[in-house]
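Input sequence (191 aa), recorded before submission:
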Amino acid sequence: MNNKTRKLDKLLEYNKAFVENKEYEKYETSKEPDKKIVILSCMDTRLTDLLPKSMNLKNGDAKIIKNAGATIMHPFGSIMRSIIVAIYEFEVDEVLIIGHHGCGMCNLDTEVLLDKILARDISEDTINTLSNSGINVSKFLHGFESVEESIEDSVNVVKNHPLIPKDIIVHGLVISPQTGKIDIVVDGYNS
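Predicted structure, token format:
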């Protein structure tokens, strides 16, 4: 039995007790976000509880999407699809793109990351096959030089998307993963 199986077993054991003790009841809500907002934030573990608490959000208040760097990599990728669905299916009227200071995607060394990939038995042939198929793996894995610029770029992707109504407000924010302090990069009410 490997560590991954043991981790899953422990999670499922806890889950069984969680359900039996009806601990889920305090989280019951509808699928519609009460505050009519969708948030794209980084997957950084420090933000799991801190981000919602720092914004006075409780379960059911917002749709929350997470990825590495809180970035929209493609205007027709899964992040934009989720934002569009939130707007049209769940009546969201504001979008918050929230990056954080000290993000691991900022100045990510893709060469070091590629070395780690190769060290985990992904062959150089696989990387070459992807490259020959038109996928620039280094560019795909590349982060960004500035959290603020990345947030501005993602805000612009949402604001200028052909399927986003012009009345949708899009904000760009940066949070401190140490204190929860939020700074405005793009104030959607004034842009």
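Checked by second reader. The mean pLDDT is 95.
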